[in-house]
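Example (one chain per record):
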Amino acid sequence: MAKQANLYAFPTTDALAPALRAYVIACQDAGIQRHGVFKVAVSGGSLPKTLAQALLPAPTSDADTVKWGQWEIFFADERAVPLDDADSNYALLKSELLDKLDQSSPQPTVHPIDTTVLSDVQELADRYEQALVRSFASRDSVKLPIFDLLLLGCGPDGHTCSLFPGHELLRETSAWVAPIEDSPKPPPRRVTLTLPVVTHAVRIAFVATGGGKKGIMKEIFEEGKGLPCALVNEHTGERCSWFVDNDAVEGRIDHVAEGLGDDGVKLGEVEC
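Predicted structure:
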C-alpha cells in the first residue's frame, strides 16, 4: 500500500509556525547541499502571512538560519495582473515577507511573471516556463523541473495553485506552466504550474488553517474525489506534508499526527 501524505495538526497557527520553519529550513539545507541553491515555489492566499510568521524571526542557532541569499523563489501560480495589483501573488509575498527581510543581508532571487504580455495568457505562461527552463537547465535535457520545495495552500473547493476541481488543466501532461482564462475564482486569467511539475517536487508542504477548511480536508484525505489537493497527495505520498491547525481538522479526519512537544511536531531531522 502506498504511503500517505503526512498530516500534522497544531493547536494554533502560532504553534504551527516553528514546525513549518524547521521543515522549510531542512528542505533548504538539503537543496543547498545538492546544488548550492534552494529552489522553491510559493502560492498566494493566506500562505505568505504564515510564511512570514514562520521565517522572519531571528535564528536561535546556526542550524535555525534561513539562508535567503541562496533562495530562488518562483510562483506556483500567478494572476495576469500588474505586479503592484492587489490580486498579484507577487505583491502579496512582497508585502508580507520580502519587504520585511533585512535589506543589508543577501536577498533571495525572485522570479515574477513578465508583465509586458499580460494581454496574452498563453504567452505569459510560455515566458514563465522559459524562466523555469533557464533555471532548471535545457528543456531538452530535463523532462520536468524538480523544485526542492513547493509551499502551497488549499482552497475551500480543494484547489491548489490555479488547478481547480474538474478543470481540463488537470489532464495537462507536457507543459510546465499553463494558462487559464476561466478560473472559477476571480480573477479568471492566470498562469499555473501544472500537476506533473507539482508532483515532481522533492517535497511539497501544504498549509491549511481555519474552520472553513474542515469539510474539504475530510474530502481530500478520506474521499479524494479527484480533487487537485487529493491528486497531489496520491501522487507524492510521504513526500507531501500538511501543516494544519486544529480548527481545520478537528473531529473530521481519522489519521492526524498531533504535534509533538510544546512547539508542535519535531521536524528538524526531516530528510529532504
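Caption: Helices lie at 13-35, 47-55, 89-96, 121-136, 195-199, 214-223, 228-236, 246-249.
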